Amino acid sequence: MSTVGLSGVARVTGATIFAFLVTACGGSPTVPMGERFNEPDYSYVVGPGDVMEIFVWGNEELSTSAIVRPDGKFTTRLVEDLPASGKTPTELARAIEVAYAEYVRQPVVSVIVNGFVGVPEQQVRVVGEATEPKGVPYTQHMTLLDLMIAVGGMTEFAAGNKSVLVRNSSGQQTSYGLRLDDLLRDGDISANLVLMPGDIVIISESWF
């Protein structure tokens, strides 16, 4: 799985940090039991850094690989600066067919994404006392335990049970308490939960 560098993780908004400070001082509710394992309605969309294979059926000379640039666009052998970021692979294939129609009769295009980064809204970020703080592309059925394995767990200075999940839902930001010590050190699977695209996990530092 491809990962996003620390520069992407560092773009935690001031509102997120403020929410964490409020939570750390006053405590935070946990994710309601009825929502802990609800699956989000999720379809992957292409983002900057994604590696794609573009197949043009019957025109193999036009088939190529491409990387989505930081501006969300890419260039093929026929067309320059095609927008890709924010589209599903199927939507992107249809857009390429429209662009190629000026040069090829009834083009049929397939897009396969091989290297996944995704848009920031579909990444899950971990900051604070993780062994390797970073952003991870969201995958269907991803849980908190999966994410902690991806970042190598917590440092020895972490206060796992004081950690916070920051989630945006319908434009509203909510903070929930996490029990990472219980999950990772005690094996309490009841502390696990399903993650959502865009979640931010802030692992607190122990002051003792």
From TrEMBL:
Limits of the Polysaccharide export protein N-terminal domain: 39-113
Q: What's the chief localization of this chain?
A: membrane
Domain of life, per lineage: Bacteria
UniProt cross-references to InterPro entries, sorted A to Z = PEP-CTERM_polysacc_export, Poly_export, Poly_export_N, SLBB_dom
Which keywords does UniProt give here?
Cell outer membrane, Ion transport, Lipoprotein, Membrane, Palmitate, Polysaccharide transport, Porin, Signal, Sugar transport, Transmembrane, Transmembrane beta strand, Transport
List locations, semicolon-separated. Cell outer membrane
Q: Which residues form the SLBB domain?
A: 122-203
What Pfam families does this protein map onto? Poly_export (PF02563), SLBB_2 (PF22461)
* Statement: the UniProt record of this protein carries the keyword Lipoprotein: yes
Protein name per UniProt: Polysaccharide export protein
Its placement in the membrane is given as: Multi-pass membrane protein
Q: Hey, which family's this protein in? A: Belongs to the BexD/CtrA/VexA family.
Which organism does this record belong to?
Answer: Congregibacter brevis
